[in-house]
Amino acid sequence: MSPLYFGKIMNVFSMHMLAIGIEILVGLTMIGTLLAIVGLFFGVISQPFIGALTDKINKRNFIIVLLIVHLIWPILLHNYTFSLALLWFSVLLWGIASISLYTVTLAYLGERINIAELSIATSVFIIVYEFGEFLGPAIIGLVMDYKGNNGFIYSLIIFTFISLFVGIIRSFARKETHGI
Predict the structure, then answer these.
(1) 116-139 per-position pLDDT tens digit
(2) Secondary structure of 28-58 in HEC code, one letter for each residue
(3) Which of 42, 54, 76, 157 is 20 to 30 A from 14, alpha carbon to alpha carbon?
């Protein structure tokens, strides 16, 4: 579920940021700055720290924490008109959590799959990721047709909640069957 979610988020955010009215507050040039420098740059810079943290804690729980962060940043983005700092902070959370979700999910995959099956599992991961990149913008665009600009935020929260719900259910099911 994580690669599907991640593919949707990375592809959709840059496309629909204009549609939610941010260009009125900050201008088109600032949108590129927000996306490239604040979101992606700080997301990439945080990866060594996220990788070190991933090695020390439970990866499944960390994925759930990252999905919870993905529930928070759209709400902050929805309230960006109150403060430009809130807008920058929500994009910073988006960048760090999105790229970290991809990193931690791949690390979790490598931990669970044996070497002989790793290339197949990684291929499936990438296929599901690309499926999310393909289908996510269409679904979010459809929701925005019915709900207006707020449909962007609603659809992000709904997709995140579904991913989080499935992850939590799988965590409890795994604990009951394996006693972990």
Answers:
(1) 888 888 888 888 888 888 888 888
(2) HHHHHHHHHHHHHHHHHHCHHHHHHHHHHCC
(3) 54
